[in-house]
Design brief:
Blueprint lengths: L1 H24 L3 H5 L8 E4 L3 E4 L8 E5 L6 E7 L4 H6 L2 H9 L2 E6 L2 E6 L3 E3 L1
Length: 122
């Protein structure tokens, strides 16, 4: 009787372990990237941009960020994000928020400002 119970328990544990692995594997990269906070996400550049020392359009250029650079982290943006709009907004609404901002980013160790319109959620 104990053998049957042990086999029953082991069979169910194996089933639920496989089911959990399937669910975890079915999560897409886009799902993993979605966040309630844009500062916790990674971005990709859509076009080459001068990397500026400050948020003003006439700030000194300290480098260049090529188009297609991935794993960009956002340090901060101005104006600040509407976090409720970001959290509950569609990807299009989030992109509209980006389009209206200038953001300090870290791209492969280079830190500086680019227009948010040059960024897309990775």
């Amino acid at each position: 009787m104990l053998k049957r119970i042990a086999l029953f328990v082991l069979a169910h544990m194996a089933f639920f372990g496989v089911a959990a692995a399937i669910v975890a594997a079915s999560t897409t990269n886009a799902d993993a990237q979605r966040s309630d906070n844009p500062y916790d996400m990674r971005f990709v550049t859509t076009e080459e941009q001068p990397l500026r020392a400050g948020p003003e359009a006439d700030s000194a250029v300290s480098g260049t960020v090529a188009s297609g650079v991935r794993d960009i982290s956002m340090r901060w943006c101005r104006p600040e994000f509407d976090f409720q709009g970001w959290m509950f907004g569609s990807p299009g609404a989030q992109q509209r928020q980006l389009d209206e901002r200038v953001c300090e980013i870290n791209a492969n160790g280079q830190v500086g400002f680019i227009p948010g319109s040059a960024l897309r959620v990775q």
